[in-house]
Sequence to fold (349 residues):
Amino acid sequence: MRGVMTLAGVVLAVAAFGAAADDAGQIKTARGSAQIERDGQRIAVAPGFHVRQSDSIITGDDGTVGVTLADNSRLSIGPNTVVSLDKYSFDTTTYDGQMDASLKKGTLAVISGKLVKHTPGAMRIHTPASIMGVRGTKFIVHVSEPQS
Amino acid sequence: MGALVYAVLLAAYVVFGAPTHRLGDETVVVLPGENGKIGGVVVRRGFQKEVVLDTAYAASHIGVDGKLKPEQLSPATVQQEYGKTIAALPLKPATFVLYFVTGSDELTQESKSELDQVFAEIRKRPIPDVLLIGHTDTVGDIESNDILSRQRADKVRDILVQAGIKTDRIEVAGRGERELLVPTGDNVEEPRNRGVEINVR
Fold:
């Protein structure tokens, strides 16, 4: 019994730590239809909402979202866009970390922050056809919907 | 036979990147940075020649033929195509360092007069978040400096809360002499290390 309790304690501690470590940034701007898909659930978002690793941000025809990440990188998601934050880690002391995001369709604007300043290339944006390595800058990626 | 087809498809995938017939066009464009510097973006597609974008409005494009090509866009085109997305970017984070009287959590006179600027940056944002990191110089032992640095950060938090900023929007940390703002040896009085960094996002 005691062993089970200890195990439960460890699991809880790991879960709590995991939640904190997954917190990647905050939504700062949101207009129109904007949602986050997390663990199979769709959640409508507003400024102040915490974004985590593995979240997908999805906007409708009139939707835009702006996010400031822990390393002061900034992202904005334009209308009709699906983007997932596949991986985000940032150590606020050493500035080590990594970011991988995938733009499935639509428009993504990025202003890189401390992560890339510390390690050029630590931020990567994936699209259906290519990969971008970011050395530090402000840029836009657009993926149009496939023509059938 | 099936294995051969698979091998050919795999080889094509490796050489040309993902199959193109189901894909839309892709465009990447670099904009002038806020500080004028452009570190650049490297665009790669399979084993095709990579495109390095490191000047303002330099772009790359992948069209229906699946080829990755460099391009140059005009500011007007970028504004027309992507203006809504650019407008959604959050405000640039603002950073300040406020300084303290030696051995205490009292702000220097100069830093007190800087507070209005800090308040103004926070009030520009409808839902701000503020990160406060306290520091000390290397006079005294590590443990008491950890405590002092946290007291300094807490002091700034109290000042912000008194000015009407919500506590749950403020995160506080003390780094003592473990992360010097200006590197020095041990037991060195350094006013520039007696600071609280403020990051307003």
